[in-house]
User: Which sequence fits this backbone?
């Protein structure tokens, strides 16, 4: 039986798919996005978070059976509302086997994943096939910039996106608007180009960044070093997507 | 709002109407002080108060009544009062507004006259009916002076209205609202927590009449209802309560009629819109729902929730109605329930229940048992001790109540369904229901404490009884690791913990057993156990508090001395909580057919939850879930903790910031610091 590590389970999460949802945040991520507001999702192992003199252990280890049993406690509520479970992260692809085994035990409950697309092609294919909806978090189209701000190359991400499009899988693209980094007209134009063409794309969600993004770093003994102005309003430019008839919302 | 209603609101916020106020000393003649009955005395006092009131006609107002007397002072008391101790004045109940409006005070006066003939040989009835008529006349005399004043102020339009109502049956929506405002305000001359009942039901005929006869457009009618709502905020500083805002002006929307037919109508929607627009603390809106409530209605309600006023409070008819029937209410009456003041289910016009005699202190019941029994015998013995403690508390409260007399109240009696017909006062047989209610306080902390003790001391045996007792007596000093372990454990209400939920269900079961075993409460009613806390979430945490309810020091759930409990039904402050679904699921397990005094599951949402229109649908789905899984009552607050912190530092900038406190909403900056702190500390779900 597979085991996995989560760093949070959020009940009634509002912005992760249809209906009432439970979002399971998988711990561990191969990317280090400069603006990440969930640094507790970086490391795959459990950690201690220290904040205002209080300590809290971050990370819970589960067997797939345990997680299935936990989800089953509220499955009726999720199902009756037209909702389900969303696996997010961290990076869900990094624990693909565990998540797959868990999904198989969910008895047809609606499942979504939220992924950066940075994971092996085989994991990506297996996981996207097993779920009903994919949230694909896109960052930067420029390979150099992607490497600089996330620590990783984006060619794998692009290839996985192309695969997803070709499969006509229902998906929602999400772009966090980071001032001067991801929110530039050039980047948005280029990403719109990536998304253009036949696919199961439902819409693009542009997310304004959260000024309190760095809040959790210090309590994990890390330093938040944003290479952008946290308090600057982002460039919420929907034009590149509208031009290509892609439904876009700002959240 | 229209510019006019916006100005009316601003004038109230600026307290301009306070300029008309003065305090008045009431004087009584020796004959008046020698009256032989309390009915008569109460009618004399109301008469003096009405006479002391001077009509105030404020610019642009279309619904009249403004208090011109701040405080009525009198220190002489009649001989008939000496040696009596009055625990309860009629309050926290609801008049039969439908009947009071449609008959008018003159119609009710005719009924009183007819009853006088019928009960001509019954001195008690005669005395009551005479006092009732005297009270009616006092109120009508004040109304006639309002008419003169309106005329003198050049408002003959309003003079026509107030010459007609509250004496006669209203001919229009405007007259209905004026009549209601007048009678409701007069009740506040002597009572408190005066409920407004099922407003969208009893106002509907007048509203439809005006729309059908083209007297008003919907927009104009809405403006008038907005004005009525605004007017309810006018003199609230004079209404007694624990904190400013605690005044019981609750209004109920939706539900079913006495035959069980759903009665959501255009006014239901309109009132929620009006409340959202007016954006003030009164009236407090309650919405009756069930598993078939249309999504559209819930969506409209969520728009009001999003406002952050702390209402509507949601009541689940599927749970409440059968429970009331089981508690001895007739099915027709149960279907007609309203919310008295905060959350207490009560029947308008027929219920003289006292829903808040005391608060059952669950934490003390559990804590005393732990300190006395831990390590001696099995866990079931400890449980039995808890059950006994709960029963002792209930019996003590009822014993205390039995020493109290109930003051008659002729004018409130006039406005109830059957008092005049029976020739009996509201407190002496004029009503149908005389039950008591006891709040159930600190239930989550108490359940968590039992769960921790069972698991650690009895099952795992990882903690010795001596160690736990030492920790409790020393307020966890030297036992910080144990405290951390307990606080961080999964054994908490709201956290999908089977054990904690089982303890919660047992606690309420023992509470119901205790109330049922007491049986008659001494005035022909029963005792209704509830889930609310009122102010006890603060009081019971203070070891120096001197009320009847027992307080506690440190408790086995990891709570330190003085830490507040949760308000009504919510997880213990600071406990591990799975999330909103876990919270609803825990509290859905209580057997509400036996626990029916009211007291909501209280949930705090961060204001960031509402980002787009889809979120309204989601929160509406959450409310459906609440109903579907068999919860009883739900209170959702929308908070921005950062704003509250700012408001505490700069109150002058946040004068109009509204928060839900317990069964009522108030202005944050007017609350005592401990109540402010509790709100800031509540577990806010960001989602």
Assistant:
């Amino acid at each position: 039986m597979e085991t996995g590590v989560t760093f949070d389970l959020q009940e009634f999460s509002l912005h992760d798919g249809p209906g009432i949802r439970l979002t399971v945040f998988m711990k561990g991520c191969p990317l280090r996005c400069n603006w990440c507001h969930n640094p507790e999702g970086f490391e795959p192992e459990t950690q201690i978070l220290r904040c205002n003199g209080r300590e809290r252990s971050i990370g819970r280890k589960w067997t797939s059976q345990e997680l299935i049993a936990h989800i089953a406690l509220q499955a009726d509520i999720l199902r009756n509302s037209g909702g389900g479970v969303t696996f997010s992260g961290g990076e869900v692809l990094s624990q693909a086997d565990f998540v797959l085994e868990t999904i198989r035990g969910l008895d047809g409950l609606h499942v979504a994943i939220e992924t950066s697309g940075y994971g092996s092609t085989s994991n990506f294919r297996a996981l996207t096939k097993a779920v009903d909806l994919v949230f694909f978090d896109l960052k930067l189209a420029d390979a150099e910039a992607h490497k600089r701000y996330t620590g990783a190359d984006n060619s794998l991400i692009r290839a996985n996106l192309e695969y997803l499009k070709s499969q006509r899988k229902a998906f929602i693209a999400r772009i966090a608007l980071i001032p001067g980094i991801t929110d530039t007209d050039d980047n948005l134009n280029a990403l719109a180009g990536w998304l253009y063409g036949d696919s199961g794309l439902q819409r693009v969600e542009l997310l304004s960044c959260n000024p309190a993004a760095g809040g959790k770093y210090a309590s994990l003994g890390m330093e938040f070093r944003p290479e952008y102005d946290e308090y600057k309003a982002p460039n919420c430019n929907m034009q590149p997507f509208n031009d290509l008839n892609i439904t876009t919302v700002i959240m | 709002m229209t510019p006019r209603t916006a100005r009316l609101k601003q004038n109230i916020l600026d307290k301009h109407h306070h300029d008309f106020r003065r305090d008045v000393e009431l004087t009584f003649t020796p004959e008046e002080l020698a009256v032989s009955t309390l009915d008569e005395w109460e009618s004399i006092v109301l008469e003096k108060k009405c006479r002391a009131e001077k009509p105030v006609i404020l610019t642009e107002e279309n619904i009249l009544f403004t208090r011109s007397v701040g405080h009525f002072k009198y220190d002489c008391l009649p001989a008939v009062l000496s040696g009596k101790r009055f625990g309860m004045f009629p309050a926290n109940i609801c008049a039969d507004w439908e009947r009071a409006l449609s008959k008018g005070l003159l119609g009710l006066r005719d009924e009183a006259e007819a009853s006088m003939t019928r009960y001509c040989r019954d001195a008690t009835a005669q005395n009551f009916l005479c006092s009732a008529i005297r009270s009616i006349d006092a109120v009508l005399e004040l109304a006639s002076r309002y008419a003169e004043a309106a005329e003198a102020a050049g408002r003959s339009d309003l003079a026509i209205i107030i010459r007609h109502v509250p004496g006669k049956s209203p001919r229009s929506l405007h007259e209905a609202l004026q009549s209601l405002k007048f009678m409701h305000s007069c009740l506040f001359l002597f009572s408190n927590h005066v409920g407004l009942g099922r407003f969208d039901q009893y106002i509907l005929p007048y509203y439809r009449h005006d729309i059908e006869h083209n007297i008003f457009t919907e927009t104009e009618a809405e403006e008038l209802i907005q004005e009525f709502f605004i007017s309810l905020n006018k003199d609230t500083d004079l209404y007694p309560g624990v904190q400013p805002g605690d005044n019981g002006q609750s209004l109920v929307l939706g539900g079913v009629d006495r035959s069980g037919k759903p009665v959501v109508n255009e006014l239901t929607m309109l009132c929620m819109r009006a409340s959202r627009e007016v954006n003030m603390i009164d009236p407090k809106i309650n919405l009756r729902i069930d598993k078939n409530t249309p999504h559209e209605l819930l969506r409209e309600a969520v728009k009001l929730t999003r406002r952050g006023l702390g209402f509507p409070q949601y009541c689940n008819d599927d749970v409440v109605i059968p429970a009331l029937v089981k508690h001895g209410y007739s099915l027709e009456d149960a279907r007609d329930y309203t919310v008295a003041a905060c959350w207490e289910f009560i029947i308008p016009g027929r219920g003289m229940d006292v829903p808040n005699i005391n608060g059952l202190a669950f934490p003390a019941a559990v804590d005393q048992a732990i300190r006395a029994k831990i390590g001696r015998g099995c866990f079931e013995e400890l449980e039995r001790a808890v059950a006994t403690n709960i029963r002792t508390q209930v019996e003590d409260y009822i014993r205390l109540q039995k020493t109290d007399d109930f003051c008659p109240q002729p004018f409130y009696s006039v406005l109830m369904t059957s008092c005049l017909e029976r020739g009996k006062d509201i407190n002496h047989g004029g009503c149908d229901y005389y039950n008591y209610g006891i709040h159930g306080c600190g239930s989550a902390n108490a359940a968590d404490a039992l769960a921790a003790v069972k698991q650690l001391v009895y099952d795992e045996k990882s903690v010795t009884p001596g160690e736990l007792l030492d920790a409790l007596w020393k307020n966890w000093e030297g036992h910080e690791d144990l405290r951390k372990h307990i606080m961080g454990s999964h054994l908490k209400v709201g956290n999908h913990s089977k054990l904690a939920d089982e303890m919660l269900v047992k606690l309420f079961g023992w509470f119901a057993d205790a109330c049922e075993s007491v049986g008659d409460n001494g005035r022909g009613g029963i005792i209704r156990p509830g889930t609310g806390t009122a102010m006890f979430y603060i009081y019971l945490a203070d070891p120096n508090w001197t009320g009847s309810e027992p307080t506690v020091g440190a408790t086995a759930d990891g709570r330190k001395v003085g830490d507040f409990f949760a308000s009504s039904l919510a997880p213990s402050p600071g406990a591990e909580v799975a999330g909103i679904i876990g919270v609803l699921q825990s509290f859905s397990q209580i057997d509400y057919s036996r626990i029916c005094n009211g007291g909501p599951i209280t949930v705090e949402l961060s204001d960031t939850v509402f980002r787009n229109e889809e979120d309204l649908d989601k929160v509406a789905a959450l409310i459906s879930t609440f109903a579907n899984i068999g919860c009883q009552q739900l209170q959702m607050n929308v908070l921005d903790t950062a704003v509250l912190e700012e408001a505490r530092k700069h109150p002058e900038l946040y004068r109009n910031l509204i928060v839900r406190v317990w069964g009522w909403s108030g202005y944050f900056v007017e609350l005592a610091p401990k109540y402010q702190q509790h709100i800031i500390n509540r577990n806010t779900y960001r989602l």
